[in-house]
Write a structure and sequence with these properties.
The complex is a heterodimer of chains A (161) and B (264).
Chain A: H1 3-11, E1 30-35, E2 41-45, H2 54-68, E3 74-78, H3 91-99, E4 102-103, H4 111-114, E5 131-135, E6 143-148, E7 154-158
Parallel strand pairs in A: 2-3, 4-7
Antiparallel strand pairs in A: 1-2, 5-6, 6-7
Chain B: H1 7-38, H2 47-75, H3 81-86, H4 97-100, H5 106-127, H6 133-161, H7 165-178, H8 190-197, H9 204-221, H10 244-252, H11 254-258
Helix pairs in contact in B: 1-2, 1-8, 2-6, 5-6, 5-7, 5-9, 6-7
The chains are: A alpha/beta (161), B mainly alpha (264).
Chain lengths: 161, 264
Amino acid sequence: MTTNDRILDLLQNVKDPEVPVISVLELGVVRHVDVEADGKVLVTISPTYTGCPAMDVMAADIKKELRDHGFANVEVKQSLSPAWTTDWITEPGKAKLKAYGIAPPEKTGDIRALKGELPVVPCPQCGSTHTVMLSAFGSTACKALWKCNDCLEPFDQFKCL
Amino acid sequence: MHRSVPLLENIAMNAQEALFTYTLRLGDDLLILSHRLGEWCGHGPVLEEDIALTNRALDHIGEARNLYDYAVKVEGKGRTEDDLAYLRTERHFVNTLLTEQPNGDYAHTIARSFLFDAYHLPLAEALTKSSDTQIGAIAAKAVKEAQYHLKHSSDWLIRFGDGTEESHRRAQEALDGLWVYTGELFVQDEVHQAMVKAGIAPDLNTIKASFDATVDRVLTEATLKRPADGYMMSGGRQGKHSEHLGFLLAEMQYLQRAYPGAQW
């Protein structure tokens, strides 16, 4: 196993502090891992939402995980461009969001978004598409609040960005 | 202390100062508006809106932090983003007067954000093409959030305008009262002209065209009247503010003033 693979394996253990089922890799936040000649590890992350307080926690958790496993010199750097998009959430990541009760984001190229229409968001609990958005802003910066008209449960949707 | 400065260095320094001031202007609008929105925390008319306004405040603070972080690097005097936010007095803030206006009722808060969003979205879109790559990267991040903001404030303005007689009256009064602060958003003074020349900032006439189109489209749907352009208030960009900013800063900066250097 190469050093890079070993680091990626470890990063799979670092979860989003607000959605603790999905890793920073599955979330698409980790953009590069570089190991320099002197053994220093440089992890480049792309922030999800501009003001999201979880980013600082993720950076600290990445450092801790790698330090705890023998990488003494770790730097986490933020990269703003290209801007993070929900399209970078991996398919296994989206499946985990859904299993956790959060409707995963649709593709940003969705034609309905271009026409200013709301997407069809299936209820993560019962699968019904008979759902309605209650508020474009939800419990965290990344989520909108929806309700299922069939099972009547409210649910979070990971906003498409 | 006086020292003579060669002409070339003088010019370079002015360009750097102009970029610092411009970055600060972008950041101050966002920080001050975010503080106003944050004042609704725990006081929103419904729970969803309480959350919406504080979420928006968070987006604005995030963008302001990115801009301040860049501004202190441009300035190169060893200040931090927190120094810019917490240790400047009102004469050193260069936000537009619109952003510091008090919340008033909910229609007033929504109208203020709508007018700002209708300016902020096309500005952020234009800044993604800035010759300054850091300003461009910050804008690319902000533009997606700004779309959500404009959708939110437009939806509510339409609901108020095309709602009951009372909600219509309040929305119209809010627009009429705030319109006098919209002219300042598009003033192109020497600092701005220097930024346009350097390819860093867009010509604000193009932003104004987009602003006008958005305002006309949304107000028509909201059955609200676009206020007539008359005398426009300005001064914020030069640090001359309405009385409201001092009170806002007194609250926002209290902790750092009372306990200098406090951290948690």
